[in-house]
């Protein structure tokens, strides 16, 4: 069914601009920076952090910084390489050279420090990555000498991708357990890459289970089921959102064929400094106005779950791409963080996403990497008259879970006047589901 809009986008823009001005004034009065990372939280459990400075608008960089690792050497390599683009914009070639030299020195002289946080069985893979990065550094030096800006940026992207892979290898056991009330839902215990083929071209998104295991797990499970194949984009607002995931028929989300019930996914937001996500409540309602999420709405192509405006736990299959508009939602200070579950970022296909409109179609979606990180809880069906019981891990293994799953393992938007609010919502009845206010 079609998503009916209650509020006009122009009204939203005016409201948002007014709200932003008020919020900025409050922020300034509190002495806050929009890019401030700590938020006064000194908990050491979660080491994922953003550098001080301008908010990051690149999805890949946000994914790298979101990893809860504590290896300063790899972070220094990352920071040096990311700084290159800033220096190139001002044509400051000497700082570019210093950035490259710093990265090269760490790679050659601190190899053992880079390997120290990587499990022994993964160290050969890490050593191969370090060798590739050293080769890339040699090539980028040559491009700097030739002042070939295009080649420098291309090589920088390649090396940063390898840095991201190295950082993922530093992840040990999954850092937390999902609350028991949500443990029956699919969970992505790691990361996965999904490629979507649309009638306008391909999109590639990386899903972050380290920060949103339930939301990302639900999405990967639905992709594996072929749920999104053939579904139309049901809402498109220029510079705002592109929404999809409403199945044919009266249902506005996924109904599990095993239970015949609507699969409801809780709001899930990991706050910087916290050891595990906040579930079932917006950061605003939780009184955490100054806290910032690990996965913010600061990049074009941010992927987030749509949900009913009055039910933080009512999301299911509908999701949206955030079409970054600095005027409405400036990076590092916007009205969506903490209100919706962000679970990934577009990493390839920006030019395709810019073309997609309401009525366009996801022809197919498939997991191309990380399907083994999807964990699907198994329930053993007892014979008639007996209760269903959760299968033990070893029984799950014997039940061939791995084979069956195929490696499967919302901040503040002003309340709408006296009417119901249509935030980023899956099409819902009788309640209108919530996409950021439209």
UniProtKB/TrEMBL annotation:
A molecular function annotated in GO for this UniProt entry is: peptidyl-prolyl cis-trans isomerase activity
Task: Identify the SUPFAM superfamilies for this entry.
Answer: Cyclophilin-like, Oxygen-evolving enhancer protein 3
This protein's species is Allocoleopsis franciscana PCC 7113
Major enzyme class: isomerase
Q: Which UniProt keywords are listed? A: Isomerase, Rotamase, Thylakoid
Q: What is its EC number?
A: 5.2.1.8
Q: Which PANTHER family match?
A: PEPTIDYL-PROLYL CIS-TRANS ISOMERASE CYP38, CHLOROPLASTIC (PTHR43246)
What is the protein named?
peptidylprolyl isomerase
Please list the coiled coil stretches: none
Segments forming domain PPIase cyclophilin-type: 201-381
Q: Name one Pfam family in it.
A: Pro_isomerase
């Amino acid at each position: 069914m079609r998503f009916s809009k209650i509020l006009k986008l122009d009204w939203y823009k005016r409201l948002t601009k007014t709200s932003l001005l008020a919020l900025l004034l409050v922020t300034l009065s509190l002495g806050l920076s929009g890019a401030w990372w700590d938020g006064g939280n000194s908990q050491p459990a979660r080491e994922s952090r953003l550098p001080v400075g301008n908010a990051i608008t690149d999805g890949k960089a946000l994914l790298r910084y979101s990893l809860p690792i504590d290896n300063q050497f790899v972070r220094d390599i990352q920071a040096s390489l990311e700084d290159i683009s800033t220096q190139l914009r001002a044509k400051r070639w000497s700082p570019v050279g210093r950035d490259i030299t710093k990265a090269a020195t760490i790679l050659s002289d601190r190899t053992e420090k880079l390997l120290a946080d990587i499990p022994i069985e993964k160290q050969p893979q890490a050593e191969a990555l370090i060798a590739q990065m050293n080769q890339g550094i040699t090539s980028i030096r040559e491009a700097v000498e030739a002042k070939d800006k295009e080649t420098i940026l291309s090589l920088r992207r390649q090396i940063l991708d390898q840095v991201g892979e190295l950082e993922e290898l530093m992840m040990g056991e999954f850092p937390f357990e999902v609350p028991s009330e949500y443990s029956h839902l699919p969970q992505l215990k790691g990361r996965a890459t999904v490629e979507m083929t649309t009638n306008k071209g391909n999109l590639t998104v990386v899903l972050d289970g380290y920060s949103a295991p339930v939301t990302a797990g639900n999405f990967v499970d639905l992709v594996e089921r072929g749920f999104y194949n053939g579904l139309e984009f049901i809402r498109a607002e220029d510079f705002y959102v592109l929404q999809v995931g409403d199945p044919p028929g009266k249902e506005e989300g996924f109904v599990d064929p095993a239970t015949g019930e609507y699969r409801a996914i809780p709001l899930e937001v990991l706050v910087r400094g916290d050891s595990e996500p906040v579930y079932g409540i917006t950061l605003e309602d939780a009184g955490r106005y100054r806290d910032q999420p690990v996965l913010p709405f600061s990049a074009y192509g941010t992927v987030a779950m749509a949900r009913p405006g009055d039910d933080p736990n009512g999301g299911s299959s509908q999701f949206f791409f955030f079409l970054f508009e600095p005027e409405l939602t400036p990076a590092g200070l916007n009205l969506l963080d903490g209100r919706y579950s962000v679970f990934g970022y577009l990493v390839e296909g920006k030019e395709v996403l810019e073309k997609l409109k309401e009525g366009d179609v996801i022809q197919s979606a498939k997991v191309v990497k990380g399907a083994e990180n999807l964990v699907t809880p198994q329930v053993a069906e007892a014979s008639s008259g007996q209760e269903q019981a959760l299968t033990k891990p070893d029984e799950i293994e014997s039940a061939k879970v791995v084979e069956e799953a195929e490696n499967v393992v919302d901040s503040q938007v002003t309340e709408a006047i006296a009417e119901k609010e249509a935030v980023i919502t899956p099409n819902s009845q009788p309640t209108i589901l919530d996409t950021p206010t439209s």
